[in-house]
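To the wet lab folks,

You asked to see what we're planning to order before we commit. Fair enough. Below is the target structure as tokens, and below that is the sequence we designed to fit it. If anything looks off to you, flag it before the synthesis order goes out.
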């Protein structure tokens, strides 16, 4: 019998923080009101830290430092390994790539707490519980 070694595609998914606020974005296919962590594939020969910095710069126009690993999650769509990270943004001015994101904005701790708690008048709808993006938000709130 032949042995198979399926390809795994590493994806960084990250929270960028600036003065106690988090950057979240939304893609056009998300349910109305949903915002989530930004994400992107790691390129060949690229470190996780470099991928986080590159993706945040490409999608939101921000520079970051102090990238740290938080958690990972296998994701079968398509054969990905989601690598959850946190980074400190060096500024908060956004230049959103509208081909990647419909919108992106900074959310306060209170807005994130309300969204994760499911408050009716929350500023946004959080990612589903099974997603690592939700795990990252809960980790950040607990920190």
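Sequence we intend to order:
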């Amino acid at each position: 019998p032949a042995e198979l070694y399926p390809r795994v595609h590493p994806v960084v998914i990250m929270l960028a923080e600036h003065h106690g606020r988090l950057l979240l974005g939304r893609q056009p296919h998300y349910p109305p009101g949903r915002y989530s962590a930004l994400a992107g594939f790691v390129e060949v020969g690229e470190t996780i830290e470099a991928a986080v910095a590159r993706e945040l710069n490409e999608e939101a126009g921000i520079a970051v430092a102090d990238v740290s690993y938080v958690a990972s999650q296998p994701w079968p769509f398509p054969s990905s390994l989601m690598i959850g990270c946190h980074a400190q943004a060096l500024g908060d001015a956004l230049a959103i790539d509208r081909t990647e994101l419909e919108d992106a904005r900074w959310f306060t701790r209170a807005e994130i707490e309300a969204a994760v708690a499911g408050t009716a008048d929350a500023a946004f709808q959080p990612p589903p519980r099974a997603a690592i993006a939700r795990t990252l938000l809960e980790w950040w709130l607990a920190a």
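Structural context that might help your review: The chain is about 25% helix and 35% strand. The helical segments are 48-60, 109-117, 132-142.

Thanks,
Computational group
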